[in-house]
Amino acid sequence: MSFNDFDGVVIPAAVEVPYSRQPGAGNTGDLLARAFGLLIEKSGLSPRQIDGLGVASFTLGPDHAIDLAWRLGLSPRWCMDDCHGGASGINLLQHAIRAIQHGDANAIALVSGDRFEAADFRQLVEHYNLTTRTWLRPLQNGGPNSVFAMLTQRHARCHGLTRSDYGAVCIAQRAWATQNPQAVYRTPMSLADYLEAPPVADPLGRFDCVPVVSGANAILLTRADLAAGVPTVRVRALQCLYNADHQEGDGLTTPLASISGELWRQAGFGAADVDVVSVYDDYPVMTLVQLCDLGFAPDGDLRALISRLGTRALAVNTSGGQLSAGQAGAAGGMHGLVEAITQLRGAAGERQVKSATRAVVSGYGMVEYRFGMCANAVVLERT
């Protein structure tokens, strides 16, 4: 396939409801409705022109996409619920593109997000899936922090890395976050700050773990002719692979390693030719793993890769990533997409990457009991 397989569909708008450590009043549906309202305001379309809706959320239940459509006053011809966690944004994007290309809808709003009280987050972690509820919850294992602490230990031994190396990833992303007025962590961070932070699960400290927030994101896709005269972004390549190793691998690679070759072939250029990178960063180890899987360290030199992050020779997670901007549940799967689209539209303000025209975004998530089962990636280009 070539990039022409995505022709006829563009992205004219992407928004984020500011993340907050405090959940505030209302419910998850209210957050998603706010994101939809911002999207309509930014796009210039009327709600009546939106005939497709895709939704990803952990806490919207018992409501679903159709319930939200009713609340928003929509009568969609295409409607989709998604449950792919950190891979949900790109998964929704893939299906929405095909729906528009095949005439099932003309303008599709994709929304994702969650509102978390403390009890909501604990409920999510302990009942994430049947495997977690049955086998991990009785052990009181601490949820994903313990799982990714063990993965970080294995990764560090394999590549000869230290805590300071992972800290450098967090520090580089925090530097971007200081230029993002919507990030929840904006205070500059030194290596000493990182190393002295309270421990969570060896070798992870506080700043290795995403801050849980409430918030929402939204993206609009339309037929190209409906966005005439508006700066837009298009998809150049998109690849997905789920449950690649059946939980039998070592976690040091993701399914991205299997699909990256086809992703770049489909795009018509390589990793060295993109200006902005957004990878799913629930932990710094996952930032490095996905960057390697996507081809950003072809020689295997991770310390050289980390150095490029610190000097901004490689613009990665320019919002600050989830590690500094926050993880609003399922919105984490769309946060990197919104940031990349914002950069390509030249609307990132102080953190704008100069002359950004191409971006790659990855999704990763749905941890079974060891590692994430879902991974996908999309290459975007400014039209």
TrEMBL record:
PANTHER family: ACETYL-COA C-ACETYLTRANSFERASE (PTHR42870), NON-SPECIFIC LIPID-TRANSFER PROTEIN-LIKE 2 (PTHR42870:SF1). The lineage of its organism: Bacteria, Pseudomonadati, Pseudomonadota, Betaproteobacteria, Burkholderiales. It comes from Paraburkholderia bannensis. GO terms for molecular function: acetyl-CoA C-acyltransferase activity. Residues 247-367 form the Thiolase C-terminal domain. Keywords: Transferase. Gene3D superfamilies: 3.40.47.10. This is Acetyl-CoA acetyltransferase.
